[in-house]
Amino acid sequence: MIALRGIEFGYDDQPVLAGVDLEIEEGELVLLAGPTGSGKSTLLGVVTGLVPTYSGGTLRGDVTWDGESILHLPARERAGRIGFVGQNPAAWFVTDTVEEELAYAMEQLGLPAATMRRRVEETLDLLGIADLRHRDLRTLSGGQQQRVAIGAVLTMHPRLLVLDEPTSALDPTAAEDVLATLTRLVHDLGVSVLLAEHRIERVVPFADRMVLVRGDGTVEVDVPQVVLERSPIAPPLVDLGRSVGWSPLPLTVREARRRAAALRTPLAEALEVPATAPTDQPAPTGTPVLEARGLSVAHRTTPVLDGVDLALHAGHVTALMGRNGAGKSTLLWTLQGRLARVGGTLLNAGRDPHAVARDERRTLTGMVPQSAADLLYLESVSEECVAADAAADAEPGTCRALLDRLVPGLDDESHPRDLSEGQKLALAVAVVLTTRPAVLLLDEPTRGLDYPGKAALSTILRELAGEGHAVLVATHDVEFVALTCDRVVVLAEGEVVSSGPTREVVAESPSFAPQVTKVLGPPWLKVAEVEKALQGSLA
Ligand SMILES: Nc1ncnc2c1ncn2[C@@H]1O[C@H](COP(=O)(O)OP(=O)(O)OP(=O)(O)O)[C@@H](O)[C@H]1O
Ligand SMILES: Nc1ncnc2c1ncn2[C@@H]1O[C@H](COP(=O)(O)OP(=O)(O)OP(=O)(O)O)[C@@H](O)[C@H]1O
């Protein structure tokens, strides 16, 4: 259906894509993966036509649709057949309400009113957003926005859907629902899907083929099984498979569980030995750094948080999880002090953050917001880093060193606006971490980060905790939680519905359990724990 031939693309003297050939057939779901900043969004842009029209840069090669070149067909004329949802869907909204947004693209195509009406209704149901239909787009949570954006392109019935990290803001259940919906379109209607994603554990089970963009701008294209044999980008299941020598590699939890039978005895034995059994941080004791009691918060007249109790202790990393729209971002901004509450008490180091002046709040609490790029306002990576060091009175080079751990080797002179999403996020995280606040709040800090980047963030947060900081991470990334967090607090409809040690909370929940727990059962959470236990039992 669509074919890329000999695609080369770059900015001035910086090559991004170096000779990409790719064909996508009708009714195929193709997963695009690769390191942060490797060129995934760029490749999607070549397909939609947004690159090079809006990106600048030089493009060589050809793009054909049913055999005819569309290289010079502008993006808006490709839009009827190629539907695109970008990494930051809210930035693309053109109307005010959910219903208007779903109808907008069809109006542009001049479809009859009755058709539009029917497709809006179908789409609201397909994506489970019927109750949001009259809502103002600006008041939606991140995950709600992502679903509306996907719905808005589906109404056009495109033959090819191009999606950039479509599940990054979705809770695990919503992500599975959206992927199941896409798969149904692929199987039943012959729609094709090209989808870039970092959390490939979510997509691999649905993918027909996988494209790995290597760091040098070339690609490897094959079935996921083959690409993952050697890929530096691999989900925990594949890491586990490689570690214990499974071949072929299992791609689904179900396959892995069958293979895992042989591990049960040695793992059970390892549990009996203190040196090889997984251990948890002892439960926090003493006075918390930050304590909220009975917090209630409303957006205008709509109650969002209802009687939330939460305590953050020095030395601990806590995860805040829960469905899209549960109130996680609202809670973080309330703890930070920006949002007013209608009830309850809140103390950070003995003070009420809402009552302190805005500038001083920043010294009490570090906050990486969901749209992390909002924190970046200077002209280059190095200016951001130098300013962050100066503002925090940190040793020169501190921010840059943090950044290099998250995404190595960014050019000092790059403009933050030109960074990939993951690079922007890493820079914003580095800027906030440089101030080393006693309390650190992060809202979905793994979007756009590859597995090595996430592992580095995990290590950095553990180090900060080790030095006595208190950290709270709102996230849907169950694998990151398993790797990083001691405790988990789950919100549902503005109330805390469960909280406790990570191992207990996620083991009890089919949607929050990481892959290792799903395959091996509790108490196993991480590949490293399994490796340690098996080495111990062989020794
Ligand atoms: N306008 C620009 N000028 C110079 N370099 C750019 C520009 N836009 C993007 N880049 C660079 O091109 C490379 C590819 O970016 P792209 O957004 O395609 O990466 P990605 O693989 O999608 O990353 P992520 O995983 O973070 O989403 C990055 O190194 C980025 O810094
Ligand atoms: N300004 C606003 N006016 C009205 N309702 C709002 C406003 N901002 C947020 N909401 C609603 O409050 C609820 C909680 O939103 P919040 O962003 O805190 O959720 P979340 O748990 O962070 O969601 P996600 O996981 O999707 O990011 C949602 O139903 C959201 O639609």
TrEMBL record:
CDD domains: ABC_cobalt_CbiO_domain1. InterPro entries: AAA+_ATPase, ABC_transporter-like_ATP-bd, ABC_transporter-like_CS, ABC_transpr_CbiO/EcfA_su, ECF_ABC_transporter_ATP-bd, P-loop_NTPase. Keywords: ATP-binding, Nucleotide-binding, Transport. It comes from the Bacteria. Pfam families: ABC_tran. GO terms for molecular function: ATP binding. This is Cobalt ABC transporter ATP-binding protein. It comes from Nocardioides daphniae. The gene is cbiO.
